[in-house]
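hi! just following up on the protien thing from before. the input was this:
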Amino acid sequence: VRVAAQEHPKGDHPKGEHPKGDPSKEEHPKGDHPGPMPLNEHHKSQEMFVGDWEATAREWNDPTQPPKESKATAKNKLVLGGRFLQMEYKGEMMGQPMEGFGLSGYDTQKNKHVMVWMDSLGTSQMHTEGDCADGCKTTTLIGEIPGPGGASMKTRNVTKVVSPTEHVFEMYVTGPDGKEMKMFEIVYKKK
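and the predicted 3d structure came back as:
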């Protein structure tokens, strides 16, 4: 957007004002703007998650008890020119209906895979970042989530691609005792 210079009598401009308007809002001359950041193999690895999925979720609230199992669906699509994967999840968690929404991508400034997640069970966002291995068939993201009593708990989220039609998400949390336990496992199968 080009900002037109404001006309002032006798060419006077208010103190501190650029004579041509705000220079940060001027268009770059043709050929001078670098354009959008190019996609790399990390961005392209997200294509394997696009589509409609049936999910089987297992959750462990007490490691001494068997996990609770529930069914869900997920719909994923690439957005913003393939830079991010938009994830929508509908199912049940902790015995309650749950809807979740997330965005994952690859931050070329940090050289890290990144994700933000929010759902209908809380009001916070989970931010995680990390790396991938095996041609991005395994991605491990680290972050924090609110724990009991408001204290933060470390989380480690691992996504493993089993085949073009199946992947598994595992979430581990580190409790106040410093021990890591598996909290969730979700097996996704393409519809």
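Residues 1-31 have pLDDT under 50 and may be disordered.
DSSP finds one helix and ten strands in the chain.
cheers
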